[in-house]
């Protein structure tokens, strides 16, 4: 039944297209939207309890992207004669206070599978109930809807292939929703300062916090990155249009997706998918249209295959909950994880002395992005060569990645560390991988210019250079570039 006044609390669904939450709320007589920059998301958190190291939950790259995404959403809502209030407050304080202030009958928001997000939802719901305000949540971020799985999520297969085959044969992807027409807002945002219920909130509702407000550095964009990754639904739709239609790269995605350099070896849609600027169902519609208007082949299917991986991890976390964040993961094999902070520090800084690992980590640090091939290799190096607690690496990614998602990140890390959804050995020999996927060493030289004079066959193994060769190429190991911290093959053999 339509309500008089609705409040939409935007979370990781920063879009107007195919947004079921907004679509339902738009049936109200009046509608107000709000986004909260939750201060806890930007602070330093003690990972793994009081005896472990503190890390920053959201680093500058993702905070910048998110800020731009919220600004774009606000612009779009204004173009639709609506508006977005932006608070730098805890949602459990801001949302109920605002609901009371505008006399909302109901609050609508996205539900997410991981425990911090769902605990927050429960708290907001409780506080709304205390004020007699209804709360409605919606599952909106996957290709297949949670309710459309062939089995209850508690019974989905823990291995990807059977899961994928089941959804492909027995589930349908729902049609994306159009942008709804929006009812007027209940009260102009500039009068909110006068409302008593909001007195306890110091941040107000009218300003996008700067990165400095969030306690972060405003880093300059490194133009060596694969894409500038502008945040927001508008940029997301532009990227999809460019990759699929203008540059016409979908037809060769399966062959290029293991690339390392350039904008178009893969779709680069992940940051927009994860902040909810882009609906995966809309991506599917575009893939279907491309298949009927241009070409249907392995590559066009493969993009949907990868979106099924994304879904798989969302449903896995829904099923297994916090077990995924434990050191033993969902399988708890007998592995002697090390708490070696020096090794973690060298890995994180891109100072391991293994060029393929270092180039990828420096790309991550400078841009917030790393290719899938790179992620697999640096994760394997930390977990399977150094045997450092894999969660430390995952937590480092959590800070840095522009496209961080808890399920995709911890799920993939657990997988590679051998504690997740696959019992097979997921070891990657980083030197062999480097020679295969960066045969001309263009990628390592792009991020490690100090190695640029080396011939391609030596750039992946600078430790093989004699003193004379080091002098000839101007690369003095231990001075211009680090000595390798381990022997790649021996370190893995030792741990088997
Ligand atoms: C250790 C590790 C950590 C990762 N952390 C994240 C993360 O925090 N967030 C994230 O979105 N992806 C993560 N991935 C998956 C993958 O690396 C990225 O999704 C991909 O590199 C993003 O680039 P793209 O959009 O060009 O991908 P494309 O190759 O164009 O794929 C299209 C989309 O499919 C999805 N996808 C592709 N591969 C995977 C995968 N293995 N798992 C889940 N979804 C996938 C993504 O949404 C991606 O945007 C991680 C992978 C590893 C190995």
Automatic annotation (TrEMBL):
<keyword id="KW-0157">Chromophore</keyword>
<dbReference type="GO" id="GO:0003677">
    <property type="term" value="F:DNA binding"/>
</dbReference>
<feature type="binding site">
    <location>
        <position position="253"/>
    </location>
    <ligand>
        <name>FAD</name>
    </ligand>
</feature>
<keyword id="KW-0456">Lyase</keyword>
<feature type="binding site">
    <location>
        <begin position="403"/>
        <end position="405"/>
    </location>
    <ligand>
        <name>FAD</name>
    </ligand>
</feature>
<comment type="function">
    <text>May have a photoreceptor function.</text>
</comment>
<feature type="site" description="Electron transfer via tryptophanyl radical">
    <location>
        <position position="390"/>
    </location>
</feature>
<protein>
    <recommendedName>
        <fullName>Cryptochrome DASH</fullName>
    </recommendedName>
</protein>
<dbReference type="GO" id="GO:0003904">
    <property type="term" value="F:deoxyribodipyrimidine photo-lyase activity"/>
</dbReference>
<feature type="domain" description="Photolyase/cryptochrome alpha/beta">
    <location>
        <begin position="4"/>
        <end position="143"/>
    </location>
</feature>
<dbReference type="InterPro" id="IPR014729">
    <property type="entry name" value="Rossmann-like_a/b/a_fold"/>
</dbReference>
<feature type="site" description="Electron transfer via tryptophanyl radical">
    <location>
        <position position="413"/>
    </location>
</feature>
<dbReference type="InterPro" id="IPR014133">
    <property type="entry name" value="Cry_DASH"/>
</dbReference>
<dbReference type="InterPro" id="IPR005101">
    <property type="entry name" value="Cryptochr/Photolyase_FAD-bd"/>
</dbReference>
<dbReference type="GO" id="GO:0000719">
    <property type="term" value="P:photoreactive repair"/>
</dbReference>
<feature type="site" description="Electron transfer via tryptophanyl radical">
    <location>
        <position position="337"/>
    </location>
</feature>
<keyword id="KW-0274">FAD</keyword>
<keyword id="KW-0285">Flavoprotein</keyword>
<dbReference type="GO" id="GO:0071949">
    <property type="term" value="F:FAD binding"/>
</dbReference>
<dbReference type="Pfam" id="PF00875">
    <property type="entry name" value="DNA_photolyase"/>
</dbReference>
<feature type="region of interest" description="Disordered">
    <location>
        <begin position="171"/>
        <end position="194"/>
    </location>
</feature>
<dbReference type="InterPro" id="IPR006050">
    <property type="entry name" value="DNA_photolyase_N"/>
</dbReference>
<dbReference type="InterPro" id="IPR036155">
    <property type="entry name" value="Crypto/Photolyase_N_sf"/>
</dbReference>
<comment type="similarity">
    <text>Belongs to the DNA photolyase class-1 family.</text>
</comment>
<feature type="binding site">
    <location>
        <begin position="306"/>
        <end position="313"/>
    </location>
    <ligand>
        <name>FAD</name>
    </ligand>
</feature>
<dbReference type="InterPro" id="IPR036134">
    <property type="entry name" value="Crypto/Photolyase_FAD-like_sf"/>
</dbReference>
<feature type="binding site">
    <location>
        <begin position="266"/>
        <end position="270"/>
    </location>
    <ligand>
        <name>FAD</name>
    </ligand>
</feature>
<dbReference type="Pfam" id="PF03441">
    <property type="entry name" value="FAD_binding_7"/>
</dbReference>
<dbReference type="InterPro" id="IPR002081">
    <property type="entry name" value="Cryptochrome/DNA_photolyase_1"/>
</dbReference>
